[in-house]
Amino acid sequence: MNLFSEEMLSAFNASVLPTDEACLLPREVYTSEEFFRFEKEAIFYREWLCAGRVDQVPNVGDYLVVTILDEPLIVARTEQGIRVISAVCRHRGMVLAEKGGHCSRFVCPYHHWTYALDGRLIGAPEMDRAIGFNKAEHNLPSLPVEIWQGFIFTSFNEQAAPLAPALAELDPLLDHFELPQTTTRTGTKIPDLPWNWKVMMENFNDPYHASRLHGPLQTFAPSGMSDFFDWRDDMNHISRIQHFTEIDGSFNPTKKCLMPVFPKLTLEERKRGMFILIPPTLALAVVPDEIAYFIIDAQGAGQISIDINYCFNPEALKDPMFEYLFEQAEAGVNNFNVQDVYADTMVQKGLNSRFGPRGRYSWQEGTLPQFNRWLVQRYRRHWPSSEHPADG
Questions:
Q1: pLDDT at position 385
Q2: How far apart are the first and last CA of the chain?
């Protein structure tokens, strides 16, 4: 089958049916580098991408350095608020910074071109003889920014539709966690994982595997105790509510919260968690004492890296036992990660097989056809014509 034929476009139809009728997307969308190049244009260069948390740049001059799709970016706090700018010097292409920190301006280490925190070129040594040179024409490119629940999003698309309305169902469910006021705790970065970014997202929000792959670790949150959202075409999240067998369940071998629970949670909220995808880069696991978030960096059809961090109520960090408790909580999450890494690796291997399936979904996988709908909307909207192939 021609990868970008009408036949392939029609093949997506079977994946966006109701859960009890739908099946997996064609295996090529997980394995083809050509298809991944198409996804970069159709999805990654158009959607909102998570670049970090507001509290990671609390003061003017604080900045993060992030790389998204091999694009070096700076997330900086200016007097006017948070900006996202290119980290590539406009002179010869030198990357301005490799890690975050604090400064009053960015100075290129190569030739000392100097930029304000908002990306304006304010110094260019010995450029006075360059005919027609105007500093104002050599500012660092700036990207749009939207803040949602304390997360910083940016986009390579200047016309990206506002993100918040597409996440409207989530706000009341997250209200008592007071996410904008939480404290971010850095976790682990896992590089060079050998699977497609969609495999990661599907596994993250698939309750069907929880009682099976994770076995005794997740008896507090059985596969059959999830509520799925009703889909609407302008949604920009794929989420579910996960109910617990008892109060204050969490991801560690005790299966109970180790940290203080978020203080405003109701009794009902302490008996459930949430799994949230904001494709193509952010996944959140919400339990009563912590929010673990995963930023996914897609690097090829079969390679990603994951940056895992955590949000806590600020009071939790004042506990003298916090570092000890956090060590145990992070180890608990890693117990799940080890099993998920194994499963995702083997799924990608299977999808690369000539016998890779288009399997049917269980009723416990209601999030997966919804994710397919999110994807197929974008595939159809930007499907290349024969005159404009995907890799052109």
A1: 76
A2: 19
